[in-house]
Amino acid sequence: MKKLKFYLSHILFFFFGVMVTVVLLWVLYKDPTRITAPALAALTAMCTFLLALWSAFKVNKWLNSKVNEKAFKRTEEFLDEMIHYNLSIAKIYYICDLLRKAKFEEFNDDIHLNKELNEYINEYFNVSLSIKVYENTFKHWGINLICRNHFNAIEKKMDSIAPRIRRIIILSSNITNSKHKKEDFLIIQLRSKEVMSYIDSSSFLLDSFTKLTYDQIFNHDKKPTPRSKKV
Q: Could you tell me if 88 and 120 are in contact, meaning their C-beta atoms sit under 8 angstroms apart?
């Protein structure tokens, strides 16, 4: 369905038609003080139209404010997740540092360390996914990410860290039943060093991103893109 639009010319033509009708009736009846049924109907129609126009304007203004409110809420949640991501990689860094310094016997017997490792890594993946989901839905709310290149650089680091973390998960989960425990442990330590190196290189990007103001990160379209397609 096509969306109807009212322009100023439409409103002016409507008023012109009503006034012409009233004037013609006054001329025909030769009595400007006399209120005829057609004149009353025309004036009533004009008043009704004005009321409807005012109501439509108020409703449209209310809807726009709600859409803008939702868009702002979306950006707020995105920024919260970016802070959460920063905290999650700090936890990953801490665990990787423990793995890098650990001895094989300590790691093999330390169930708590393995559990903590899995918890932090799962948190990292959940936050990373959440950030990507928020960013991919910005266009639905008319949100523009101004610092696109900055965010893309951070996202690239996310994608680089993820496979190395997955490798750590797989090896640490299977090390108890592995026939090559020491070799696997050395690989875990190697991957841990790699992850720490990637986190170190991404720290500057994340720190500088968190210091940006809202207006340096986002701007908003006047008319957000509708979520449903036009028929």
A: yes
Q: What are phi and psi of 144, to 5 degrees?
A: -110, 130
d(CA 59, CA 55): 6
Q: What average pLDDT does the segment 149-155 reach?
A: 90
- Note the pLDDT of residue 15: 60
Q: For residue 16, give Cα distances in angstroms to 5, 20, 48, 155.
A: 19, 6, 16, 59
Q: Residue 181, Cβ neighbours under 10 Å: how many?
A: 16
Is 65-220 a CATH 1.20.120.230 domain? yes
Considering the chain, tell me which residue range(s) the CATH 1.20.120.230 domain(s) occupy: 65-220
> ∠ CA 23-25-31 to the nearest 5 degrees?
90
